[in-house]
Amino acid sequence: MFKEIVRAEIWLQDTLESQETIDTLAERLGYSTSQVRRRFRQHFGMSPSAYREALRLEKASRLLIHTPLSIRTVAGRCGYTNHLAFSRAFLRRFRHSPRYHRLTGREALAEAAARAGSAPRPEIETLPPCAAVVAREYATSETLPPPRRWLERLDGYQLPLPGASERAAALLLLHDPGPQSGLPRLDLGVLVDGESAGSLPIPPTLRLLELPQARCACLDLPGPQRLHDTLVALLAALPEMGEHYNGDAVRLVRSESALTLQLPLLDGEETQR
Questions:
Q1: What span, in angstroms and rounded, lies between the C-alpha atoms of 273 and 271?
Q2: Could you give the CA distance from residue 95 to residue 80 in angstroms, rounded to a whole number?
């Protein structure tokens, strides 16, 4: 049932703003609610409901630190329909208020950026929609496999994939880029042609991921070794450019010529909310 529990974890991640219940999840997996709760706790050390709340609050933490969005807007984006319920949940998780978290988080980011040094100025690009075949792993940004091994995580799936050239770019999605993430998750795989992606025979250990159009701050990296320092410096520099990280998964794309960091950004209109 491990593959189903991984599917459950991904479903919880993808439905943060939804009010769907664990009963819905159990029905989708074909198991009883009690089975899903028990097996999920065995693998992740907490109930599905607690895990979803932890995901919501981790995202809230990123939005508070990296965006000018109001606390009420942050709460809504993280699935909380009641501002007071959000503040109480945040206090339980972080032992301080959202407002205090925003202040101290930005101070800590500035200090970390000073230690990391400045990052080159990124290119702001609107990336078109794309698709990828990926495998889920539970690892932090400090334990990333080297780019040459990213495709090995496709569980022996025959390469090149239909709809992907022999030299298709490898993709890594880092869902929680914090250096001490409590919920480390990443996806590793290969970019494929979106038009033919729907006909790909995807084995149960992998999934087809459709990535929407996104505005990103793009920066070529010499290698993954300085990913953390570069990311910290970039996050600290973006507000001076009038840009803000939107809290979604950080993309790393390895092509023949470069390893590119793609940091998703808030749309301009969103910063006014």
A1: 6
A2: 18
Give the angle subtended at the CA of 173 by the CAs of 133 and 267, to the nearest 5°.
Answer: 110
State yes or no: pLDDT of 159 exceeds 70.
Answer: no
pLDDT tens string 21-61: 889 888 888 889 999 999 999 999 999 999 999 999 999 99
Q: What is the pLDDT of residue 57?
A: 95
Handedness of CA 115, 105, 217, 141 (dihedral sign): positive
The helix (H) or strand (E) run that includes residue 210 is: strand 207-211
Q: Which neighbouring-strand residues pair with 154?
A: none
DSSP sequence for 47-77: -HHHHHHHHHHHHHHHHHHH----HHHHHHH
**Angstrom distance (rounded) from CA 188 to CA 181:** 18
Q: Residue 2: helix, strand or coil by DSSP?
A: helix
Residue-by-residue DSSP string for 240-260:
GGT--B-SSPEEEEE-SS-EE
Identity of the amino acid at 97:
S
- CA–CA distance, 60 with 98 (Å, rounded to integer): 9
Evaluate whether 109 touches 115 at the Cβ level (below 8 Å): no
Return d(Cα 224, Cα 91) in angstroms, integer: 35
Main-chain phi, psi angles of 61, to 5 degrees = -60, -45
Q: What is the pTM of this model?
A: 0.90
State the CB neighbour count (10 A cutoff) for residue 235: 23
Cα Dmax for the chain: 52
Q: Rounded CA gap, 214 and 6, in Å?
A: 26
pLDDT value for 223: 76
265 DSSP assignment? B
